[in-house]
Design goal:
Elements: H1 18-38, H2 44-55, H3 61-68, H4 72-84, E1 88-92, E2 100-104, H5 106-127, H6 132-148
Antiparallel strand pairs: 1-2
Helix pairs in contact: 1-5, 2-3, 2-5, 3-4
């Protein structure tokens, strides 16, 4: 029986399909984030939601689902858990009263800061050995993929 090579070799390396390699890299990154954030009692999707709310306060649940690339149902669960823990709070939209806007609380900002420190350690591992120019090229390429596909 032929055993598949480890990540980084054969079709799982530079000769593999780009879409597969992106998925492989995303899976490895997500696992590293899950492990790093578990110590804080947070999940990568919670980290994404807190990050987006800090950057864009007042988003609705539907807006959060879009920018976090999560299903509305998943965001609903995340919102309930973060609200229960006092990390976010809701306010009615000033014009559309039935729409709820979400913002990060002090407690949520403190959690986000801790999560960021863990995420930055992973970022340093991701960018180790890459020049600033190479990082810019990769970031532009990944952003273009997300925008174009």
């Amino acid at each position: 029986m032929l055993r598949p090579p480890p990540p980084g070799e054969g079709k799982r390396g530079e000769h593999g399909y780009l879409a597969y390699l992106l998925r492989q890299a995303q899976a490895a990154t997500r696992l590293a984030m899950e492990r790093a954030l578990a110590d804080l009692g947070a999940t990568p999707p919670q980290f994404v939601v807190l990050t987006m709310l800090k950057a864009y306060p007042g988003l609705s649940g539907a807006d959060l689902a879009r920018v976090a690339m999560l299903t509305p149902q998943t965001v609903g669960v995340i919102i309930r858990n973060l609200e229960r823990d006092g990390a976010i709070k809701k306010t009615p939209h000033p014009i559309h009263g039935r729409v709820l806007q979400w913002t990060v609380t002090r407690r949520g900002a403190a959690l986000l800061d801790k999560c960021r420190r863990h995420a930055q350690a992973i970022e340093r591992r991701l960018t180790a050995g890459l020049s600033a120019n190479a990082q810019t090229v990769i970031r532009r390429w990944l952003a273009k993929i997300a925008a174009d596909l």
